[in-house]
Design a protein that fits this description.
alpha+beta; six-stranded mixed β-sheet; disordered C terminus
Length: 330
């Protein structure tokens, strides 16, 4: 694979900030202002730290705090403009080097892509109630493996841990409560999505023709892992239409090929008593080996459904929606 010029993929990144320059004794990069990340001294693992935010608290070891701070340093001070990528938290923190990784908030173009996916793709509609922290990670070993043509992980999605939620708190407003006193309103990440900056650079994003389509595919893929708990029930055929209408946007799918005593399986989002989604991490719909498919074809239900999608799909509505910003993608 030929080498490509690195492009800055992290948000709030000054020209040249993407390179790993030699660190001076004060922890800052040579020829640059002091590093935005601070380095905590080595500590005893038994030392604990209690963090409090919005009436919630969590106690962790100082080692865990140090690791998480390296990844999320500066996010708690951010404040985004109202209406800007409402489901993609945009704290505006500068890239932070932690160990061998350079971690930064994704550039606005990537955040806008992710927001369009949430707005236009029906499969992501539940994320309109979620907050997603989109990060870009650059790592020397990943860049090296990409150049060698090896398989690498180019993205990962996970539920935000308690510590992640506290450190990614973003102030969005100050609203008066019942007694007229203004209190700050914060939002926290429900999911953390990490994209490989080395892969984005390898495909030439955003300058190379066609790289936007590849970046969009990755950004559409990772939120698919950011799921909500799904329940199911068997419904009599005569009552199907009424039940689906009753479920509204909570209806996920009607499985005509899954029946019990003539009743049809209907799957839908399961909410809490307060009406909130129950966040979960979804696995891939299909996990199979190429050789098995070559020898046995689409031998199970999920594979057959995947083949149907590939055969029947004549256009790419998500690409149209991403380009126009105003079309509903199925």
């Amino acid at each position: 694979m030929s080498k490509k010029k690195k492009t800055a993929v992290c948000g709030s990144q000054e020209p040249g900030a993407g390179s790993r320059e030699k660190q001076k004794d004060d922890g800052s990069a040579a020829g640059s202002p002091p590093a935005t990340g601070y380095r905590l001294p080595a500590t005893n693992d038994e030392t604990t730290i209690t963090l409090e935010s919005g009436g919630k608290s969590v106690t962790v070891s100082e080692k865990t705090f140090k690791e998480a701070t390296g990844r999320f340093l500066g996010l708690s001070g951010g404040c985004r403009a109202e209406g800007e990528t409402p489901n993609i938290i945009a704290p505006g923190a500068p890239p932070t080097e932690t160990g061998s990784e350079l971690v930064g908030v994704a550039r606005v173009e990537l955040r806008a892509m992710a927001q369009r996916c949430i707005d236009h793709v029906r499969e992501h509609r539940h994320l309109q109630d979620a907050r997603v922290l989109l990060l870009v990670i650059e790592k020397p070993s990943t860049a090296k493996n990409l150049e060698a043509g090896k398989r690498v992980s180019i993205g990962k999605a996970a539920k935000a841990r308690s510590l992640d939620r506290l450190l990614s708190s973003v102030k969005i407003a100050a609203e008066p409560d019942g007694d007229g006193v203004e209190r700050e309103k914060h939002e926290h990440a429900d999911f953390v999505v990490r994209l490989s900056g080395d892969w984005l650079s390898a495909i030439g994003w955003p300058l190379e023709p066609g790289s936007d389509k590849l970046a969009l595919a990755l950004i559409d893929h990772e939120p698919c892992h950011c799921g909500a708990k799904i329940a199911g029930e068997f419904v009599k055929p005569a009552e199907l239409a009424a039940r689906v209408e009753e479920l509204g946007d909570d209806h996920v799918e009607t499985c005509e090929d899954v029946k019990r005593d003539g009743d049809v399986l209907v799957r839908y989002y399961s909410r809490t008593e307060a009406g909130s989604y129950r966040w979960v991490v979804r696995k891939h719909d299909v996990e199979e080996f190429q050789g098995v498919i070559e020898r046995h074809g689409a031998w199970d239900r999920q594979l057959r459904r995947m083949v149907d999608v590939l055969v029947e799909r004549e256009d790419l509505p998500l690409l149209r929606a991403a380009a126009k910003g105003d079309e509903e993608a199925a």
